[in-house]
User: Fold these one by one.
Assistant:
Number 1:
Amino acid sequence: MTQTLTLRRPDDWHLHLRDDAMLQAVLPETTRHFARAIIMPNLVPPVVTMADAQSYKARIKAAMPQGSRFTPLMTLYLTENTEADDLAAAYSSGLISAVKLYPAGATTNSASGVANFDKVRPVLERMAEIGCPLLVHGEVTDHDIDIFDREAVFIDRVLDPIRRATPALKVVMEHITTKDGADYVRANPERLGATITVQHLMLDRNHMLVGGMRPHYYCLPILKRREHREALLSAATSGDKRFFLGTDSAPHATHAKESECCSAGCFTAPVALACLAQTFDDAGALDRLEGFASLNGPGFYGLPPNEDSITLTKSESPANLPKQVENGSDPITVFDPGSPVYWSVT
Ligand SMILES: [Zn+2]
């Protein structure tokens, strides 16, 4: 017996598309299922100015599959040298939808990120004035802070002070991974939302580390202990409109993942919706999936939900999900949750 589920077409509120050949290889994996995505700016060099965003958007448009109606929602990478006027012009023209804050050194290509938060205070004030959301990679990068504690410490030391100093600023905590993150959103209803990835809803650090280390589960912020995954799952399936899907799908060539020093990121785009449907089904919350994947994000960003829909089907035997996406001599391994997924997009 098959079961079907039709949803308004989802959006991805946190996505890495990379550039050049990698962009060509991975873009169709997102445009097939998603109508819009917030495009992360951490290229090398990063997308820091309005001109950078214009040219990156043109490269994405040029790489789109024929007939695709996908809309890339561009972002700028906040640096200590970001010019408020350039940012404001990019936002008011509709070119960018948000600005991304990476603490210096937090993740892949984040060396240009912010080290001294006082230096960006005037830019944050301007963003609050014009309504431009700040998307934060919420981890401190201090060497003395344990990698599993970096999100909680970021909330106390960086995020909460920023929000107190600039209370009108709209903030999205990207890819929250802890109960602390979910609790902070719940306790601060004003102008605050959070994205959650598929892998953080399905996996905890045991999946990554017990019985051998699995590089394709290594991402940043890193998978946490089970109680944190349970807190994220309960936030995602709660119906609370401030939590929404951001896959953080982050492709790296398989050889860069299966190496002595593995790159951080899970490439989930091709299977994100199938995995998400399975996760919500297992939690008895399929009726909340549309809110999380298709309604809450546009609601937070002040955009209309998509008009068209997608249909997912649940089969009696596990779905045959893609394992790899070709990219010349650098194929990319697709995320595999390691447990059966009976849902697929039809
Ligand atoms: Zn990311």
Note: The mean pLDDT is 96.
Number 2:
Amino acid sequence: MKTIGLICGSLRKASYNRIIAETLPKLDDSVQFLQIEIGELPLFNEDLEVDGDPTTVTQFKQAIKQVDGLIIVSPEYNSGVPGVLKNAIDWASRPTKTSVLINKPVGIIGATPGGMGTAFAQIQLRQSLEQIHVQVLPFQKMLISQVHTKIDIEQRALTDEKTNTYLNRYLKQFIEWMHQNQ
Ligand SMILES: Cc1cc2nc3c(=O)[nH]c(=O)nc-3n(C[C@H](O)[C@H](O)[C@H](O)COP(=O)(O)O)c2cc1C
């Protein structure tokens, strides 16, 4: 069975994006999911690489290596990619020629209480990932606007039917494409 790694670009406990990430495993049981955490990674610094990666970085890279594909679920900060997520991507991009991200199939999902559905952050993220020779799911986009009206925070559940349908469709397309890419 294939495994999809899930990375959330928000460290907030009540993160809408984390709740969306938690929804994905409930939508499809033909694959398994692995939550990959980024909150304990140090700030990227080339000096830290000299004596070998810190343990958290090694574990992070190992987790990415072992999954067949990745779905990143992230908010947008100031029309861009949150620093914590960019930091994680920068770590995973090293060493450049043997990065665990090379050719990894990746999907991008984003949720925001705002109206633009994290469109700017997704464009930036796609650009950085393509630089690392990641395969980003082409054509499909999964942008969730006004997410605060679509989630029950107490239940940690996506309650909006339409969004659930779109998310399900996106996930199915990602899985099919991931199979074709391997
Ligand atoms: C520093 C900062 C910058 C933000 N910039 C944007 C933005 O550019 N676009 C947007 O849609 N929301 C922006 N927001 C609002 C976030 O979408 C909102 O806080 C969201 O709930 C964060 O995602 P999370 O719930 O997964 O933590 C920003 C929030 C913070 C803290």
Note: Residues 3-45+53-180 form a domain with the Rossmann fold fold (CATH 3.40.50.360).
